[in-house]
Amino acid sequence: MGVSGLVGRESYKNLSAQDILQFFMEYGKLTTLPKGSTMFSPGEKGDRIYLINHGEVKVYRSTNDGKEIILELLGPGSILGDTEALSGLEWKNTAITKQDTIVHMVSQRTLLERAEKDRKLSAWLLERTARKQLDTEALMEGLLFKSANSKVAQLLLDLADRYGVLSDEGTLIDYLITHQEIGNTIATTRETVSYAFMEFRQAGMIDTVKRRTVIKDRAALSLVAQE
């Protein structure tokens, strides 16, 4: 699936997926980042916004004792850096490429200049900010009140919504993610995630193909996510 198809999974009132893609293509610099590249890190000025054209990016924060808390797992069509670019704040997180990645990078100056002239672009940025706040609140609620299996199920469903590809066996999550990364995202251990995967496979809800997960019974997995 192309970038436009993935961007198109986000529905906005004022700006179409094609408009968003066109903005980044027209005003952004196309840049290739090798696997393991740091896109930004804490303390740096948030002076740019990215659209991922190809590849995978992990956004995380490190605790004082060296543990990694994953905040976002992003792929083609995902946008990052908009909150910092709009606010002028420094980045508090680290973003690193999980594989060779191609991005469209727009400078803060260009973003603000275009937003001032284009009401639709300005409204889109405001709506994104509001949605991210609601998503953060939902994430915190899930981390506090849901069981480990429920959190694993919900993460798989979220990844399927963003990166799912229909196949003969179900919905293939076309995004490579380890059990450790899932654990770091939902505040649990790798062993707990592995046990949840084993239970889901035994129940016929998921399968694994070439290190990627296939959701075979979405309805059943959704019930677990609601527990």
Features:
alpha+beta, 12 strands, globular, four-stranded antiparallel sheet, 227 residues, Jelly Rolls, 46% helix
CATH class of the largest domain: Mainly Beta
Assign an overall shape: globular
Summed over residues and divided by their number, the pLDDT gives a mean of 87
Portion of residues in beta strands equals 25-35%
CATH topology of the largest domain: Jelly Rolls
Rg over CA atoms, rounded to whole Å, is 18 Å
**pLDDT under 50 segments (min length 5)?**
1-8
Report helical residue fraction: 40-55%
CATH architecture of the largest domain: Sandwich
List the helices and strands in order: HHEEEEEEHEEHHHEEHHEEH
Structural class: alpha+beta
Instruction: Kindly report how far apart the N and C termini lie.
Output: 32 Å
Number of helices in the DSSP assignment: 9
Whole-number tally of structural domains: 2
CATH homologous superfamily heading of the largest domain: Jelly Rolls
What is the spatial order of strands in the main beta sheet? 1-8-3-6
Note the main sheet. Answer: 4 strands, antiparallel
Number of DSSP E strands: 12
